[in-house]
Amino acid sequence: MRVLLVEMDTHTYPFYLKACAKCFDVREGERVHGIVVRNGFEALVFVQNALVHLYSACGMAESGYRLFEEMPERNRVTWNSVINGFAINGRPNEVMTLFREMGFEGVLPDGFTMVSLLTACVELGALALGRRAHVYLLKIGLNKNLHVGNALIDLYAKCGSIGEAHCIFNEIGVRSVVSWTSLIVGLAVNGFGKEALDFFKELEEEGLVPSDITFIGVLYACSHCGMVDEGFAYFKRMKEEYSIVPKIEHYGCLVDLLGRAGFVQEAYEFVQNMALKPNAVVWRTLLGSCMTHGHLALGEVVRARLLQLEPKHSGDYVLLSNLYASEGRWSDVQTVRRNMFQKGLRKSPGHSLVELKNHVHEFLMGDKSHSQRKEIYKMLEDVMKKLKVEGYVPRLSNVLADIEEEEKENTLSYHSEKIAIAFMLINTKPGSPIRVVKNLRVCVDCHLAIKLISKIYDREIIVRDRSRFHHFRDGICSCKDYW
DNA sequence: ATAGGGTTAG
């Protein structure tokens, strides 16, 4: 996009910069930024705000922030633009800090601010913090704001409190398709696929038009519930009834739908024949299915494609290595490991977050840094003892190394989610639910162990992992072991 | 006249 900049005045720049932001054309935006400076308009707050928005919206939150720092005059929009920049670029801690600073400067938050704040809470999985934000915005009457309502649905759903998400949905007077989509996606990631599809049906009965994102939620629900035929039927309806052109994300869902259900060869054929060029995520989905269902030969083929597309993705090395490990091919495991280390790649360390009395505690794998470490490890030993009485046998194939069996067992018992759960068993009242947010996917062994812990200690345990929720209760998980 | 928001496959 490029137009002649004759006759551009101070009123035109914001319009034009907004357009640049909308098509992520940061280069053109920078060019205009230069012109603005040369013409001496850089101190005008409207122009400045448009520039902060441009950088924030194009993934350059830091650049937006640098401008913000230099601004002689700021208003609420300036604050909102820079805060939102951090919110949409995955920097929740900066959002929290700036929100506080905004308050110190006497600038009152509005709906825009609260949406950014809620987005940051979602990112952190900080349910208690999100609830405080909710209470606050009730006080200032912002709960009537549709965008805020939708952000609240997302907050509660993504923090595993689907009942509260439901309440918010019911309280919204006039809902948009986004309200419905947020709830459908929320139900789907929490393992309530059937309910998600019921809501989709209701949405249609209300005469609303689902969006491409609504269909991502629907396809996600199908793939996580093993509804293969239904998924393809929805995909067909999406194209034919709603004239939505499928995006790579939709194809990704279908690959997952097939692969997850064990149709791994079919998934591979689907990838080769689909209308869009498969990206790394699609190939990675397929590699995940190869891993789950033990298709070693195909896994190696898929791995080769991934190496061409994204040679530096450490997660792919881990997946392949686990695939070899599950077949007991330890020398291949070693080769992959060595390969990975030689390229300077490291497995991203697993960590788990839990919220206790307005504080977020973080635990790493094998963490021994916590002030309560003695009690925690004593509790862990107790837990492991009780698990074994219940017939628990550690599943070791997921461990990335061909170390001695005993040592492997040790490594597993110290996975961050187990430590976090032990910490919460010590510090919370019997019977109260335990919520854990994990950065990686929960492994088979932890999944089995947590199921048993939920039964033995009579606790509801809600784990949000990298891709979905697990609600553990009475020894079973909402994912029905299909995740 | 001019600036800002929510839902998105692994």
TrEMBL record:
Coiled coil, from the record: none
Keyword Repeat: yes
Organism: Kingdonia uniflora
Protein name in UniProt: DYW domain-containing protein
UniProt xrefs under InterPro entries: DYW_dom, E2_motif, E_motif, PPR_At4g14850-like_plant, PPR_rpt, TPR-like_helical_dom_sf
GO terms, molecular function: RNA binding; zinc ion binding
Recorded superkingdom: Eukaryota
PANTHER family in the cross-refs: DYW DOMAIN-CONTAINING PROTEIN, PENTATRICOPEPTIDE REPEAT-CONTAINING PROTEIN
Pfam families on file: DYW_deaminase, E_motif, Eplus_motif, PPR, PPR_2
Keywords for the protein's UniProt record, in alphabetical order: Repeat
One of the GO biological process terms: RNA modification
Family of the protein in this entry: Belongs to the PPR family. PCMP-H subfamily.
PPR repeats: 75-109, 176-210
Domain DYW positions: 391-483
Keyword Protein biosynthesis in record: no
